[in-house]
């Protein structure tokens, strides 16, 4: 017997950002060119009802094997994914020298908001439930974006987030169920995450999971696999809850 499966729909997307248009009220940005074009990889499995938007950490991109691995695990579970680069190719080249853009959290958050709004405008994605998967500094940007689009984001998960970069006001405005995953050997970030959980005043479901033996990048054998497994369950759970609430 031959099992026939429909293929995932995949596309390289380009999203234009007007840098002169304010989108973030909880952080400042450094002015760059008036228009930036962001590139991303969109994958939509057949029957997907939710999408996870990835916000990468410093020095990472949609081409990162770690990001792609987690995305594949989510896709195999029937979740759509958008891996978007929040800095342009030219800015990435500058950043290798100056390290300027990777810590411009306000800029990254504004661009993530633009990508989030773009999803709501596309025929293929406008009805999908939206969640964020953030890593490191990208997770800080996702917290700000999640506060700005609190009624849009249904679940948030971070790997090694630096919540201190997100500003306390943003943390107070996040509403989505929030999960922080940190490596056991990333002691400073564990403490930062514990403090951040206390500031998530509007979040009813919030949790910190520490992965044994893991450092900040989760490069140790089996640690990233555990992150992906947990992420799959988290998004499936809260996307399902959102789906049921929409029917009420």
Average pLDDT metric: 86
Label the overall shape. Answer: globular
Strand order of the largest sheet: 1-2-4-3-5-6-7-8
Major β-sheet profile: 8 strands, mixed
N-to-C order of helices and strands: EEEHEHHEHEHEHEH
At the fourth CATH level, what is the homologous superfamily?
Alpha/Beta hydrolase fold, catalytic domain
Helical proportion, percent range: 25-40%
Spans with pLDDT under 50 lasting ≥5 residues? 1-5, 23-33
**The CATH architecture:** 3-Layer(aba) Sandwich
CATH topology label:
Rossmann fold
- Cα gyration radius (Å): 17 Å
Whole-Å distance between the termini?
A: 41 Å
Structural class: alpha/beta
Number of domains: 1
Can you describe what's shown?
By secondary structure, this protein is of the alpha/beta class. The protein has a single domain, classed as 3-Layer(aba) Sandwich (Rossmann fold). It is built from seven helices and eight strands; from the N terminus they run E-E-E-H-E-H-H-E-H-E-H-E-H-E-H. Strands 1-2-4-3-5-6-7-8 form an eight-stranded mixed β-sheet, with helices on both faces. Helix 3 packs across helix 4. The protein starts with 8 loop residues before the first strand and ends with a helix.
